[in-house]
Amino acid sequence: MNQATTTDVPAFLPATTHAYLLRSAASLAEATESDDVATSYACAHVAALQAAAALLAARTTPTVAGRRRQQRNAWVLLSEVAPELAEWAAFFSAGAAKRAAAEAGSTRAVLPGEADQLVRDADRFLAVVEQSLGLMPHAPSAARHERRVG
Question: Which uninterrupted H or E stretch holds 27?
Fold first, then answer.
């Protein structure tokens, strides 16, 4: 299946878009509430991925095609469908390996400051996606406690 894209915000958003936005907010809340650095980082990255999926669900429609296209990850698709978000896509794509290491249980993959910053970045990205969909951006997450080293 190919994806046809549109730069216009649809008159209504698909239920899938809303579901991804809700999942993104829930993952962001989990990232904010977690005291575990790896969990916080992984949940923040997943929150950003779910926000990207929400935008893709809103701006693409499946089309039937005779030939299968090469599979591309969500960050590549986001850059194509929403070029204005290409920098965000590159940023989160670069953190995918670190997220995988954190999810695999590596205690050295992520520093506390990196997790805190990614939570803030994912929170901003979710707001950018919501705004690009014509929605009122969510209120930023309450200031979370900064992890203290030592």
Answer: helix 15-33
Q: Write out the two tokens for 76.
A: 């590549």
Residue 4, strand partner residues: 61
E-strand stretches of 18-150: 60-63
Question: What are the pLDDT digits (tens) for 3-38?
Answer: 444 444 455 889 999 999 999 999 999 999 999 999
Cα torsion 24, 109, 121, 31 to 10°: value is 40
In 3D space, the residue among 145, 144, 135, 142 whose CA is nearest the CA of residue 22 turns out to be: 135
Q: Two tokens at 53? A: 């999926």
Residue 67 lies in a domain: yes
Place of tokens 């920098």: 87
Give the count of domains, the chain. 1
| Residue 1 CA from chain centroid, whole number | 23
pLDDT in tens, 110-149: 999 999 999 999 999 999 999 999 998 887 765 444 543 4
CA 82 to chain CA centroid, nearest Å: 13
5 by DSSP, 3-state: which?
Answer: strand
Identify the CATH number of the domain in which residue 96 sits: 1.20.120.330
